[in-house]
Design goal:
alpha/beta, five-stranded parallel β-sheet, 14 helices, 8 strands, 45% helix, 9% strand
C-alpha cells in the first residue's frame, strides 16, 4: 500500500467581507494606484448593482473563492487531495488604506483567520497581516498574532505607499519578525508609482509581468541595502518560483560587487547570492514548469523550495499534477509538498 503524501499549499489567498467593502470604495475612488486595475475588476461589482455586472477580473469570480473559505474551497481541496492551505490575506491586503483603517482591519482579519484555523486545525493555518504604515502598532499586532493567535508567520504585499523594507523606518517590523522566528512572506502587488509606467497596458500590470518585477525589485533593494547584515536570522519567503531572482542572481551578484567597488552601493558582509541562499525561501505558486523547478532546486537547494497553488487565482488540479509528476525523488517530493513548509512556517507534522 502506497503511503499518502501530505500536501500543504503555501500561498493561498483569502479575504473577509469588511476588507472587500473597503476595497470597493478604493475601486470607486480617485486613486491612481496601478493596483486599482485589479481591485476594480474584483471588487467594484460587490453587491451586484452599480457596476452593471461583472467585467474583466470580475468574470473570473475570484471574490467568491476569497470569501468562501469553509465551503467551496474545502470541497476543492478534498477533490484533489490537498490537505492544508496556508492562508494569507489577498493582495493588496490593507496597504491601500490609511494607517488607522489598515491597523483595525489587519487585526480583524487576523482574528477571523485564527478562528478558521481553530475550527479546522488539520486543514488551515495562516499568515498574519499587519499595517506597515504604523511600524509600532504593526509590531504589537505581529506579537499578538504569533503569541496569542498562534498564527504561522506574516504576509506583506510588497511596497507601502511606494516605500520598501530597506527603509529603516520599517526595520522595527523586521526586528519583530526575526525575534519571533516568523517567516515574512513578501507577496506581490502592482508596481509603485515610480515603477508602473510601461506596465499599465496589455495586462502587464499584475501576474503576467508587473508582480514579479515589483517583488524582485523589493528583494534586491533589501539585499543591496545590507538589511540582512542587520537581521541575519530573518527569513523571507517569495512566491512564483522566486520572482525570477534565481535566474538573475549570478548577474545581480556580479553587478552589485562592481557597484560596491565604485561606491555606488553599500558595502555588505555577504554577496547577493549568499543572502539569497541564506535568508530566502521560494514557493512554486503559479509557475508549473518542471524545468524552472529543476533549476530553482539546483540553484537554491531542495530545502528552500515549497509547493503552492495560488488559490483561487490558479486552478488546484494542474498544481497538484505538476508536483505529482515533477522529476524528483520521493524524499524530495516530500520536502517540496510538506516538510519544508512544516519547518519554515512551524506547522505541526502529521
Amino acid at each position: 500500500m502506497v503511503k499518502k503524501i501530505r500536501r500543504i499549499a503555501t500561498e493561498e489567498a483569502f479575504s473577509i467581507p469588511e476588507i472587500a467593502a473597503e476595497l470597493q470604495k478604493v475601486a470607486r475612488g480617485p486613486s491612481s494606484s496601478l493596483d486599482k486595475l485589479l481591485v476594480k475588476g474584483i471588487y467594484d461589482a460587490l453587491g451586484g448593482t452599480e457596476a452593471g455586472g461583472a467585467s474583466g477580473y470580475g468574470r473570473m469570480n475570484f471574490l467568491e473563492g476569497l470569501l468562501d473559505i469553509e465551503g467551496r474551497r474545502l470541497e476543492e481541496m478534498d477533490e484533489f487531495g490537498v490537505d492544508m492551505h496556508l492562508l494569507s490575506l489577498t493582495a493588496p491586503g490593507v496597504q491601500m488604506f490609511d494607517a488607522d483603517t489598515a491597523t483595525e482591519l489587519a487585526a480583524l482579519a487576523n482574528d477571523r483567520l485564527a478562528e478558521i484555523c481553530r475550527r479546522h486545525p488539520t486543514r488551515f493555518c495562516g499568515l498574519a497581516s499587519f499595517a506597515p504604515h504604523s511600524p509600532r502598532r504593526a509590531v504589537r499586532e505581529m506579537e499578538r498574532a504569533m503569541r496569542v493567535l498562534r498564527l504561522n508567520g506574516f504576509i506583506l504585499n510588497s511596497h507601502t505607499q511606494g516605500e520598501y523594507l530597506d527603509d529603516p523606518k520599517y526595520w522595527p517590523v523586521l526586528e519583530a519578525a526575526e525575534a519571533l522566528d516568523a517567516c515574512l512572506y513578501i507577496h506581490p502587488r502592482a508596481a509603485s508609482d515610480t515603477l508602473k509606467g510601461p506596465m499599465q497596458d496589455y495586462g502587464m500590470d499584475s501576474a503576467m509581468w508587473g508582480y514579479g518585477v515589483e517583488v524582485g525589485t523589493h528583494v534586491v533593494r533589501m539585499m543591496a541595502a545590507g538589511v540582512f547584515d542587520r537581521f541575519p536570522n530573518l527569513k523571507v519567503c517569495i512566491g512564483h518560483m522566486g520572482e525570477a531572482i534565481p535566474f538573475w542572481i549570478w548577474r545581480i551578484t556580479f553587478m552589485n560587487s562592481r557597484a560596491q567597488r565604485i561606491d555606488r552601493a553599500p558595502k555588505t558582509k555577504l554577496t547577493m547570492d549568499e543572502y539569497f541562499r541564506r535568508n530566502f525561501v521560494v514557493t512554486t505558486s503559479g509557475v508549473e514548469d518542471h524545468l524552472a523547478l529543476e533549476y530553482t532546486i539546483r540553484k537554491l537547494g531542495i530545502d528552500n523550495v515549497l509547493w503552492a497553488i495560488d488559490y483561487p487565482y490558479q486552478p488546484t488540479g494542474p498544481a497538484v499534477e505538476f508536483m505529482d509528476t515533477a522529476p524528483v525523488s520521493a524524499a524530495e517530493r516530500a520536502k517540496l509538498y510538506h516538510q519544508n513548509a512544516e519547518r519554515i512556517f512551524h506547522i505541526a507534522p502529521w
